[in-house]
Protein backbone atom coordinates (compact mmCIF):
# COMPACT_ATOMS: atom_id res chain seq x y z
CA UNK A 1 0.00 0.00 0.00
CA UNK A 2 1.11 3.53 -0.74
CA UNK A 3 2.05 5.88 2.09
CA UNK A 4 -0.28 8.88 2.04
CA UNK A 5 1.03 12.17 3.39
CA UNK A 6 -1.68 14.33 4.92
CA UNK A 7 -0.67 17.94 5.49
CA UNK A 8 -3.27 19.57 7.67
CA UNK A 9 -4.76 17.69 10.61
CA UNK A 10 -7.92 19.64 11.42
CA UNK A 11 -11.46 18.42 10.90
CA UNK A 12 -10.86 17.38 7.29
CA UNK A 13 -7.30 16.02 7.55
CA UNK A 14 -7.92 13.99 10.70
CA UNK A 15 -11.23 12.58 9.42
CA UNK A 16 -9.63 11.59 6.10
CA UNK A 17 -6.80 9.97 8.05
CA UNK A 18 -9.32 7.87 10.01
CA UNK A 19 -11.16 6.84 6.82
CA UNK A 20 -7.94 6.00 4.95
CA UNK A 21 -6.49 3.98 7.83
CA UNK A 22 -9.80 2.11 8.13
CA UNK A 23 -9.50 1.32 4.40
CA UNK A 24 -6.03 -0.17 5.00
CA UNK A 25 -3.76 2.73 3.97
CA UNK A 26 -0.68 3.98 5.78
CA UNK A 27 -0.65 7.69 6.57
CA UNK A 28 1.89 10.20 7.79
CA UNK A 29 0.19 13.33 9.03
CA UNK A 30 1.42 16.86 9.78
CA UNK A 31 0.08 20.17 10.95
CA UNK A 32 1.65 23.60 11.32
CA UNK A 33 2.49 23.19 15.04
CA UNK A 34 4.53 20.00 14.93
CA UNK A 35 4.11 16.22 15.39
CA UNK A 36 4.06 16.32 19.19
CA UNK A 37 0.65 18.04 18.98
CA UNK A 38 -0.71 15.05 17.04
CA UNK A 39 0.17 12.36 19.60
CA UNK A 40 -3.46 11.82 20.58
CA UNK A 41 -4.62 11.46 16.98
CA UNK A 42 -1.91 9.00 15.92
CA UNK A 43 -2.45 7.04 19.14
CA UNK A 44 -6.07 6.66 18.15
CA UNK A 45 -5.17 5.77 14.53
CA UNK A 46 -2.78 2.99 15.52
CA UNK A 47 0.19 1.42 13.79
CA UNK A 48 -0.72 2.51 10.26
CA UNK A 49 -0.25 6.19 11.19
CA UNK A 50 2.53 8.43 12.37
CA UNK A 51 2.97 12.16 12.79
CA UNK A 52 5.81 14.15 11.27
CA UNK A 53 6.93 17.65 10.45
CA UNK A 54 5.46 18.95 7.17
CA UNK A 55 8.60 18.43 5.06
CA UNK A 56 9.15 14.92 6.47
CA UNK A 57 5.54 13.94 5.79
CA UNK A 58 5.87 15.22 2.22
CA UNK A 59 9.16 13.37 1.71
CA UNK A 60 7.81 10.09 3.10
CA UNK A 61 4.61 10.22 1.04
CA UNK A 62 4.00 8.40 -2.22
CA UNK A 63 1.29 10.98 -2.74
CA UNK A 64 -0.05 13.73 -0.53
CA UNK A 65 -3.21 15.50 0.54
CA UNK A 66 -3.21 19.21 1.38
CA UNK A 67 -5.96 19.80 3.92
CA UNK A 68 -5.83 23.53 4.61
CA UNK A 69 -6.97 26.62 2.71
CA UNK A 70 -4.97 28.20 -0.12
CA UNK A 71 -3.06 31.40 0.57
CA UNK A 72 -0.66 33.14 -1.84
CA UNK A 73 2.12 33.11 0.76
CA UNK A 74 1.84 29.41 1.64
CA UNK A 75 5.23 27.87 2.35
CA UNK A 76 4.81 24.38 0.93
CA UNK A 77 7.36 21.55 0.77
CA UNK A 78 7.58 21.90 -3.03
CA UNK A 79 10.86 20.01 -3.37
CA UNK A 80 9.66 17.03 -1.31
CA UNK A 81 6.40 16.94 -3.30
CA UNK A 82 8.07 17.20 -6.73
CA UNK A 83 6.89 14.53 -9.15
CA UNK A 84 4.10 13.43 -6.79
CA UNK A 85 0.33 13.63 -6.98
CA UNK A 86 -0.95 16.28 -4.54
CA UNK A 87 -4.65 16.17 -3.68
CA UNK A 88 -5.99 19.63 -2.87
CA UNK A 89 -9.21 19.43 -0.84
CA UNK A 90 -9.59 23.17 -0.32
CA UNK A 91 -12.75 25.10 -1.08
CA UNK A 92 -12.39 28.74 -2.03
CA UNK A 93 -14.36 30.67 0.57
CA UNK A 94 -13.57 34.39 0.41
CA UNK A 95 -15.38 35.07 3.70
CA UNK A 96 -12.90 32.71 5.39
CA UNK A 97 -9.67 33.08 3.40
CA UNK A 98 -9.87 36.55 1.84
CA UNK A 99 -10.55 37.08 -1.85
CA UNK A 100 -8.27 36.51 -4.82
CA UNK A 101 -9.02 38.72 -7.87
CA UNK A 102 -7.85 36.19 -10.48
CA UNK A 103 -10.38 33.70 -9.06
CA UNK A 104 -13.18 36.25 -8.61
CA UNK A 105 -12.70 37.51 -12.18
CA UNK A 106 -12.83 33.96 -13.55
CA UNK A 107 -9.26 34.01 -14.88
CA UNK A 108 -8.14 31.06 -12.77
CA UNK A 109 -9.49 28.57 -10.28
CA UNK A 110 -8.01 28.38 -6.80
CA UNK A 111 -6.71 24.93 -7.72
CA UNK A 112 -4.76 26.32 -10.68
CA UNK A 113 -3.19 28.73 -8.19
CA UNK A 114 -2.25 25.75 -6.00
CA UNK A 115 -0.75 24.05 -9.08
CA UNK A 116 1.37 27.17 -9.67
CA UNK A 117 2.67 26.90 -6.09
CA UNK A 118 3.70 23.29 -6.80
CA UNK A 119 4.86 23.40 -10.44
CA UNK A 120 6.68 20.05 -10.27
CA UNK A 121 3.73 18.23 -8.65
CA UNK A 122 0.50 16.90 -10.13
CA UNK A 123 -2.25 18.79 -8.33
CA UNK A 124 -5.72 17.28 -8.29
CA UNK A 125 -8.87 18.74 -6.77
CA UNK A 126 -10.83 16.12 -4.80
CA UNK A 127 -12.90 15.50 -1.66
CA UNK A 128 -14.07 19.13 -1.66
CA UNK A 129 -17.81 18.44 -1.54
CA UNK A 130 -18.11 15.67 0.99
CA UNK A 131 -18.42 16.75 4.58
CA UNK A 132 -15.89 15.68 7.18
CA UNK A 133 -18.24 16.36 10.04
CA UNK A 134 -21.61 15.16 11.35
CA UNK A 135 -24.81 15.96 9.48
CA UNK A 136 -26.74 19.09 10.40
CA UNK A 137 -29.48 18.68 11.43
CA UNK A 138 -29.09 15.25 12.98
CA UNK A 139 -31.89 12.83 12.06
CA UNK A 140 -30.56 9.82 13.93
CA UNK A 141 -27.44 8.21 15.33
CA UNK A 142 -25.94 7.45 11.91
CA UNK A 143 -25.87 11.19 11.13
CA UNK A 144 -23.22 11.61 13.81
CA UNK A 145 -20.78 10.03 11.35
CA UNK A 146 -18.92 12.33 8.92
CA UNK A 147 -20.45 12.16 5.43
CA UNK A 148 -17.27 10.59 3.99
CA UNK A 149 -18.06 7.57 6.19
CA UNK A 150 -21.88 7.80 6.41
CA UNK A 151 -22.38 7.93 2.60
CA UNK A 152 -19.81 5.24 1.68
CA UNK A 153 -21.20 2.21 -0.15
CA UNK A 154 -19.63 -0.85 -1.83
CA UNK A 155 -19.03 -0.75 -5.60
CA UNK A 156 -22.24 -1.42 -7.51
CA UNK A 157 -24.62 -0.49 -4.67
CA UNK A 158 -27.80 1.13 -6.02
CA UNK A 159 -27.41 4.12 -3.71
CA UNK A 160 -23.67 4.66 -4.21
CA UNK A 161 -22.73 8.35 -4.34
CA UNK A 162 -20.19 10.02 -6.64
CA UNK A 163 -17.49 12.58 -5.94
CA UNK A 164 -15.82 14.88 -8.45
CA UNK A 165 -12.15 14.97 -9.44
CA UNK A 166 -10.27 17.56 -11.56
CA UNK A 167 -6.64 17.66 -12.63
CA UNK A 168 -4.36 18.62 -15.50
CA UNK A 169 -2.77 15.16 -15.13
CA UNK A 170 -4.85 12.08 -16.10
CA UNK A 171 -2.76 9.84 -13.84
CA UNK A 172 -3.64 12.05 -10.85
CA UNK A 173 -7.36 11.84 -11.64
CA UNK A 174 -7.01 8.06 -12.00
CA UNK A 175 -5.26 7.78 -8.62
CA UNK A 176 -8.11 9.70 -6.96
CA UNK A 177 -10.68 7.55 -8.79
CA UNK A 178 -9.11 4.45 -7.19
CA UNK A 179 -8.95 6.17 -3.79
CA UNK A 180 -12.63 7.18 -4.00
CA UNK A 181 -13.48 3.57 -4.85
CA UNK A 182 -11.48 2.34 -1.82
CA UNK A 183 -13.49 4.70 0.37
CA UNK A 184 -16.86 3.75 -1.12
CA UNK A 185 -17.56 6.34 -3.83
CA UNK A 186 -17.78 6.56 -7.62
CA UNK A 187 -15.83 9.28 -9.44
CA UNK A 188 -16.83 11.85 -12.04
CA UNK A 189 -13.89 13.37 -13.91
CA UNK A 190 -14.30 17.13 -14.34
CA UNK A 191 -10.81 17.88 -15.65
CA UNK A 192 -8.81 20.02 -16.22
CA UNK A 193 -8.27 22.28 -13.20
CA UNK A 194 -9.56 25.25 -15.19
CA UNK A 195 -13.00 23.55 -15.18
CA UNK A 196 -12.99 22.96 -11.42
CA UNK A 197 -15.07 26.11 -10.79
CA UNK A 198 -18.03 23.86 -11.71
CA UNK A 199 -17.72 22.21 -8.29
CA UNK A 200 -17.05 25.36 -6.27
CA UNK A 201 -19.21 26.40 -3.31
CA UNK A 202 -22.55 27.77 -4.53
CA UNK A 203 -22.78 25.66 -7.71
CA UNK A 204 -25.69 23.22 -8.28
CA UNK A 205 -23.67 20.20 -7.18
CA UNK A 206 -22.62 21.98 -4.01
CA UNK A 207 -26.01 21.79 -2.30
CA UNK A 208 -25.65 17.97 -2.33
CA UNK A 209 -22.55 17.94 -0.14
CA UNK A 210 -24.68 16.89 2.85
CA UNK A 211 -26.45 13.79 1.49
CA UNK A 212 -24.47 13.15 -1.70
CA UNK A 213 -25.51 12.62 -5.30
CA UNK A 214 -25.43 9.76 -7.77
CA UNK A 215 -23.01 9.78 -10.70
CA UNK A 216 -25.84 10.83 -13.06
CA UNK A 217 -26.95 13.67 -10.76
CA UNK A 218 -23.38 14.88 -10.36
CA UNK A 219 -22.76 14.90 -14.13
CA UNK A 220 -25.98 16.89 -14.62
CA UNK A 221 -25.19 19.32 -11.81
CA UNK A 222 -21.69 19.98 -13.14
CA UNK A 223 -23.12 20.63 -16.62
CA UNK A 224 -25.69 23.07 -15.21
CA UNK A 225 -23.12 25.21 -13.34
CA UNK A 226 -22.81 28.88 -14.28
CA UNK A 227 -19.65 30.79 -13.49
CA UNK A 228 -20.24 33.78 -11.25
CA UNK A 229 -17.82 36.60 -12.15
CA UNK A 230 -17.09 39.57 -9.91
N1 LIG B 1 -14.30 20.40 7.17
C1 LIG B 1 -14.93 19.91 6.11
O1 LIG B 1 -15.99 19.27 6.22
C2 LIG B 1 -14.36 20.14 4.74
C3 LIG B 1 -14.98 19.54 3.63
C4 LIG B 1 -14.41 19.67 2.37
C5 LIG B 1 -13.26 20.42 2.22
N2 LIG B 1 -12.69 21.02 3.31
C6 LIG B 1 -11.46 21.82 3.13
O2 LIG B 1 -10.44 21.24 3.90
C7 LIG B 1 -9.53 22.24 4.34
C8 LIG B 1 -9.33 22.10 5.84
O3 LIG B 1 -10.55 22.32 6.49
P1 LIG B 1 -10.71 21.96 8.04
O4 LIG B 1 -12.13 22.12 8.34
O5 LIG B 1 -10.02 20.68 8.34
O6 LIG B 1 -9.83 23.14 8.70
P2 LIG B 1 -9.20 23.18 10.15
O7 LIG B 1 -9.97 22.31 11.09
O8 LIG B 1 -9.00 24.62 10.48
O9 LIG B 1 -7.75 22.49 9.98
C9 LIG B 1 -6.71 23.07 9.25
C10 LIG B 1 -5.45 22.23 9.50
O10 LIG B 1 -4.44 22.65 8.61
C11 LIG B 1 -3.23 22.88 9.34
N3 LIG B 1 -2.47 23.89 8.62
C12 LIG B 1 -2.85 25.16 8.30
N4 LIG B 1 -1.86 25.76 7.59
C13 LIG B 1 -0.86 24.84 7.47
C14 LIG B 1 0.41 24.85 6.85
N5 LIG B 1 0.86 25.92 6.18
N6 LIG B 1 1.18 23.73 6.93
C15 LIG B 1 0.74 22.63 7.57
N7 LIG B 1 -0.46 22.57 8.18
C16 LIG B 1 -1.25 23.66 8.13
C17 LIG B 1 -3.68 23.29 10.72
O11 LIG B 1 -2.63 23.03 11.62
P3 LIG B 1 -2.51 23.80 13.04
O12 LIG B 1 -3.79 23.53 13.77
O13 LIG B 1 -1.29 23.21 13.67
O14 LIG B 1 -2.35 25.27 12.69
C18 LIG B 1 -4.87 22.35 10.92
O15 LIG B 1 -4.42 21.08 11.33
C19 LIG B 1 -10.13 23.60 3.95
O16 LIG B 1 -9.45 24.08 2.81
C20 LIG B 1 -11.58 23.26 3.62
O17 LIG B 1 -12.11 24.11 2.62
C21 LIG B 1 -13.20 20.88 4.56
Gross CATH architecture of the domain at 69-223? 3-Layer(aba) Sandwich
Beta-strand residue fraction: 15-25%
Main sheet summary: 8 strands, mixed
Overall number of strands:
8
Q: State the order of secondary-structure elements, H for helix, E for strand.
A: EHEHEHEHEHHHEHEHEH
Name every ligand kind in the structure.
Answer: NADP nicotinamide-adenine-dinucleotide phosphate
Instruction: Briefly note the structural class of the backbone.
Output: alpha/beta
3D shape = globular
Cα Rg: 17 Å
CATH class of the domain at 69-223: Alpha Beta
| Number of alpha- plus pi-helical segments | 10
Cα(first) to Cα(last) distance is 44 Å
Mean pLDDT, rounded to whole units?
97
Strand sequence of the main sheet, in spatial order? Answer: 3-2-1-4-5-6-7-8
Output the keywords.
about 230 residues, alpha/beta, Rossmann fold, eight-stranded mixed beta sheet, 10 helices, globular, binds NADP nicotinamide-adenine-dinucleotide phosphate
Structure, explained:
The chain has a domain at 69-223: Rossmann fold, CATH 3.40.50. 32% of the residues lie in helices and 16% in strands. It contains ten helices and eight strands. An eight-stranded mixed beta sheet has the order 3-2-1-4-5-6-7-8, with helices on both faces. Strand 2 (26-30), helix 2 and strand 3 form a beta-alpha-beta unit. The chain is globular. 43% of the residues are buried. The model has no long low-confidence stretch (mean pLDDT 97).
Amino acid sequence: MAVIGIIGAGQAGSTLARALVAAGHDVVIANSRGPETLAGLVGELGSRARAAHVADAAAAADFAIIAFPYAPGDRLPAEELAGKVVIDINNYMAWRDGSYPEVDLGHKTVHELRQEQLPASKVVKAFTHVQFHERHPLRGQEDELPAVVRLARPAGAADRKALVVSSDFPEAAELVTRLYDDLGFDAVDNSPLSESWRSAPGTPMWSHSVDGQSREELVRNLRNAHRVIG
